[in-house]
Protein backbone atom coordinates (compact mmCIF):
# COMPACT_ATOMS: atom_id res chain seq x y z
CA UNK A 1 0.00 0.00 0.00
CA UNK A 2 1.36 3.41 -0.93
CA UNK A 3 0.90 5.49 2.20
CA UNK A 4 2.31 8.99 2.30
CA UNK A 5 1.96 11.62 4.98
CA UNK A 6 2.47 14.46 2.52
CA UNK A 7 -0.35 16.94 2.46
CA UNK A 8 -1.95 17.59 -0.92
CA UNK A 9 -4.32 20.51 -0.94
CA UNK A 10 -6.98 19.92 1.69
CA UNK A 11 -5.79 16.36 2.42
CA UNK A 12 -3.86 16.83 5.66
CA UNK A 13 -3.41 13.45 7.33
CA UNK A 14 -3.95 12.97 11.04
CA UNK A 15 -3.98 10.08 13.47
CA UNK A 16 -6.57 9.26 16.11
CA UNK A 17 -5.39 7.04 18.97
CA UNK A 18 -8.00 5.05 20.89
CA UNK A 19 -7.53 2.85 23.95
CA UNK A 20 -8.98 -0.65 23.60
CA UNK A 21 -8.88 -3.87 25.64
CA UNK A 22 -5.90 -4.88 23.45
CA UNK A 23 -3.95 -1.66 23.82
CA UNK A 24 -4.11 1.41 21.65
CA UNK A 25 -5.36 1.38 18.08
CA UNK A 26 -4.23 4.12 15.69
CA UNK A 27 -6.50 5.28 12.85
CA UNK A 28 -4.84 7.34 10.10
CA UNK A 29 -7.24 9.53 8.18
CA UNK A 30 -7.67 12.70 6.19
CA UNK A 31 -10.60 14.80 5.05
CA UNK A 32 -11.36 14.24 1.37
CA UNK A 33 -14.35 15.44 -0.55
CA UNK A 34 -17.47 14.96 1.53
CA UNK A 35 -15.88 13.44 4.61
CA UNK A 36 -12.98 11.67 6.30
CA UNK A 37 -11.30 8.68 4.68
CA UNK A 38 -9.16 6.05 6.38
CA UNK A 39 -5.65 5.39 5.09
CA UNK A 40 -4.47 2.86 7.63
CA UNK A 41 -5.07 1.31 11.04
CA UNK A 42 -2.28 0.12 13.31
CA UNK A 43 -2.95 -2.22 16.22
CA UNK A 44 -0.77 -2.59 19.28
CA UNK A 45 1.22 -5.78 19.23
CA UNK A 46 3.48 -7.50 21.78
CA UNK A 47 6.41 -5.20 22.47
CA UNK A 48 5.11 -2.39 20.26
CA UNK A 49 2.14 -0.28 21.42
CA UNK A 50 0.39 1.49 18.55
CA UNK A 51 1.35 4.92 19.91
CA UNK A 52 5.04 4.05 19.77
CA UNK A 53 4.63 2.56 16.28
CA UNK A 54 3.05 5.84 15.13
CA UNK A 55 5.99 7.86 16.48
CA UNK A 56 8.49 5.51 14.86
CA UNK A 57 6.80 5.15 11.46
CA UNK A 58 5.23 8.59 11.03
CA UNK A 59 7.03 11.12 13.24
CA UNK A 60 5.32 14.47 13.40
CA UNK A 61 1.88 13.38 12.25
CA UNK A 62 -0.68 15.45 14.15
CA UNK A 63 -3.30 13.86 16.35
CA UNK A 64 -6.85 14.76 15.45
CA UNK A 65 -10.38 13.52 15.11
CA UNK A 66 -13.84 14.47 13.98
CA UNK A 67 -17.37 13.18 14.59
CA UNK A 68 -17.10 10.38 12.00
CA UNK A 69 -13.68 9.23 13.19
CA UNK A 70 -14.87 9.30 16.81
CA UNK A 71 -17.80 7.10 15.77
CA UNK A 72 -15.48 4.67 13.95
CA UNK A 73 -13.05 4.38 16.83
CA UNK A 74 -16.00 3.81 19.16
CA UNK A 75 -17.10 0.93 16.92
CA UNK A 76 -13.55 -0.45 16.92
CA UNK A 77 -13.53 -0.37 20.72
CA UNK A 78 -16.95 -2.07 20.82
CA UNK A 79 -15.72 -4.75 18.39
CA UNK A 80 -12.70 -5.40 20.58
CA UNK A 81 -15.03 -5.74 23.57
CA UNK A 82 -16.79 -8.60 21.77
CA UNK A 83 -19.78 -6.77 20.32
CA UNK A 84 -21.14 -7.86 16.94
CA UNK A 85 -20.03 -4.92 14.82
CA UNK A 86 -20.07 -5.00 11.01
CA UNK A 87 -17.91 -2.29 9.51
CA UNK A 88 -18.55 -0.70 6.13
CA UNK A 89 -15.89 -0.06 3.51
CA UNK A 90 -17.20 3.28 2.32
CA UNK A 91 -14.52 5.33 4.10
CA UNK A 92 -11.45 3.10 3.63
CA UNK A 93 -8.93 3.86 0.89
CA UNK A 94 -8.85 0.46 -0.80
CA UNK A 95 -7.77 2.28 -3.94
CA UNK A 96 -4.32 2.66 -2.35
CA UNK A 97 -3.86 -1.13 -2.32
CA UNK A 98 -2.48 -3.10 -5.25
CA UNK A 99 -5.14 -4.92 -7.28
CA UNK A 100 -4.35 -8.41 -5.95
CA UNK A 101 -4.33 -7.26 -2.33
CA UNK A 102 -7.61 -5.44 -2.91
CA UNK A 103 -9.19 -8.69 -4.16
CA UNK A 104 -7.86 -10.58 -1.13
CA UNK A 105 -9.13 -7.94 1.27
CA UNK A 106 -12.59 -7.96 -0.29
CA UNK A 107 -12.71 -11.77 -0.07
CA UNK A 108 -11.66 -11.59 3.57
CA UNK A 109 -14.24 -8.89 4.29
CA UNK A 110 -16.96 -11.26 3.04
CA UNK A 111 -16.17 -13.93 5.69
CA UNK A 112 -18.96 -13.60 8.26
CA UNK A 113 -18.54 -13.34 12.01
CA UNK A 114 -18.08 -16.75 13.61
CA UNK A 115 -16.58 -18.32 10.46
CA UNK A 116 -13.02 -18.80 9.26
CA UNK A 117 -11.37 -19.64 5.97
CA UNK A 118 -7.88 -20.71 5.01
CA UNK A 119 -5.30 -18.85 2.97
CA UNK A 120 -5.51 -21.62 0.36
CA UNK A 121 -9.29 -21.54 0.11
CA UNK A 122 -9.26 -17.78 -0.32
CA UNK A 123 -6.63 -18.18 -3.05
CA UNK A 124 -8.80 -20.80 -4.76
CA UNK A 125 -11.84 -18.55 -4.50
CA UNK A 126 -9.82 -15.87 -6.30
CA UNK A 127 -8.88 -18.30 -9.08
CA UNK A 128 -5.33 -18.99 -7.90
CA UNK A 129 -5.41 -22.35 -6.05
CA UNK A 130 -1.62 -22.31 -5.49
CA UNK A 131 -1.58 -18.76 -4.15
CA UNK A 132 -1.91 -19.39 -0.40
CA UNK A 133 1.39 -17.65 0.39
CA UNK A 134 0.45 -14.63 -1.69
CA UNK A 135 -2.87 -14.41 0.15
CA UNK A 136 -1.05 -14.68 3.48
CA UNK A 137 1.32 -11.89 2.47
CA UNK A 138 -1.57 -9.67 1.35
CA UNK A 139 -3.33 -10.19 4.68
CA UNK A 140 -0.13 -9.74 6.71
CA UNK A 141 0.03 -6.19 5.36
CA UNK A 142 -3.73 -5.54 5.63
CA UNK A 143 -3.88 -1.77 6.16
CA UNK A 144 -7.36 -2.00 7.71
CA UNK A 145 -7.32 -4.71 10.40
CA UNK A 146 -10.66 -5.16 12.19
CA UNK A 147 -12.56 -3.27 9.49
CA UNK A 148 -11.37 -6.04 7.18
CA UNK A 149 -11.33 -9.00 9.62
CA UNK A 150 -8.08 -10.72 8.65
CA UNK A 151 -8.16 -12.62 11.94
CA UNK A 152 -10.68 -14.92 10.21
CA UNK A 153 -8.01 -16.38 7.89
CA UNK A 154 -6.09 -19.38 9.22
CA UNK A 155 -3.77 -22.12 7.95
CA UNK A 156 -5.13 -25.24 6.28
CA UNK A 157 -4.25 -27.37 9.34
CA UNK A 158 -6.39 -25.11 11.55
CA UNK A 159 -3.34 -23.28 12.93
CA UNK A 160 -3.82 -19.61 13.59
CA UNK A 161 -1.02 -18.30 11.41
CA UNK A 162 0.16 -14.74 11.86
CA UNK A 163 -1.67 -11.61 12.91
CA UNK A 164 -0.62 -7.98 13.25
CA UNK A 165 -1.78 -7.85 16.87
CA UNK A 166 -0.12 -11.19 17.76
CA UNK A 167 -1.57 -14.71 17.92
CA UNK A 168 -3.10 -14.20 21.38
CA UNK A 169 -5.18 -11.32 20.10
CA UNK A 170 -6.17 -13.33 17.02
CA UNK A 171 -7.30 -16.22 19.21
CA UNK A 172 -9.20 -13.87 21.55
CA UNK A 173 -11.04 -12.25 18.63
CA UNK A 174 -12.06 -15.65 17.24
CA UNK A 175 -13.17 -16.85 20.68
CA UNK A 176 -15.35 -13.75 21.03
CA UNK A 177 -16.98 -14.84 17.76
CA UNK A 178 -17.60 -18.35 19.20
CA UNK A 179 -15.08 -20.06 16.92
CA UNK A 180 -14.10 -23.32 18.72
CA UNK A 181 -10.47 -24.31 19.43
CA UNK A 182 -8.90 -27.73 19.88
CA UNK A 183 -5.77 -26.32 21.56
CA UNK A 184 -4.08 -22.96 22.10
CA UNK A 185 -3.27 -22.32 18.44
CA UNK A 186 -5.57 -24.55 16.37
CA UNK A 187 -9.17 -23.89 15.42
CA UNK A 188 -11.54 -26.86 15.73
CA UNK A 189 -13.65 -26.70 12.60
CA UNK A 190 -13.97 -28.43 9.28
CA UNK A 191 -16.50 -25.99 7.87
CA UNK A 192 -14.41 -23.31 6.24
CA UNK A 193 -15.84 -20.35 4.35
CA UNK A 194 -15.15 -20.74 0.61
CA UNK A 195 -14.92 -24.53 0.94
CA UNK A 196 -18.37 -25.03 -0.59
CA UNK A 197 -19.55 -26.86 2.54
Task: Using brief descriptors, characterize the structure shown.
disordered N terminus; 197 residues; single chain; alpha+beta; three-stranded antiparallel β-sheet; two-stranded parallel sheet
Write up what this structure looks like.
By secondary structure, the chain is an alpha+beta fold. The protein has helices at residues 50-57, 67-80, 99-109, 119-125, 132-140, 167-176, and strands spanning 14-20, 23-32, 35-43, 117-118, 153-154, 181-183, 186-187. Helix 4 (119-125) packs across helix 5. The termini are far apart. Mean pLDDT is 92; it is low at 1-9.
Summarize the topology.
Blueprint lengths: L13 E7 L2 E10 L2 E9 L6 H8 L9 H14 L18 H11 L7 E2 H7 L6 H9 L12 E2 L12 H10 L4 E3 L2 E2 L10
Q: What's the mean pLDDT score? A: 92
Distance between the termini: 33 Å
> Which structural class best describes the helix and strand composition?
alpha+beta
Number of helices: 6
Instruction: Describe the sheet with the most strands.
Output: 3 strands, antiparallel
Amino acid sequence: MNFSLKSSGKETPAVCLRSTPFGQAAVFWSMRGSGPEIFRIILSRPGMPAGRAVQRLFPGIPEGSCREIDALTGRIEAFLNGENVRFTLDTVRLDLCRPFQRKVLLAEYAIPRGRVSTYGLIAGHLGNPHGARAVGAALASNPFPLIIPCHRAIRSDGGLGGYQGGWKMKRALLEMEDVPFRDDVHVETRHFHYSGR
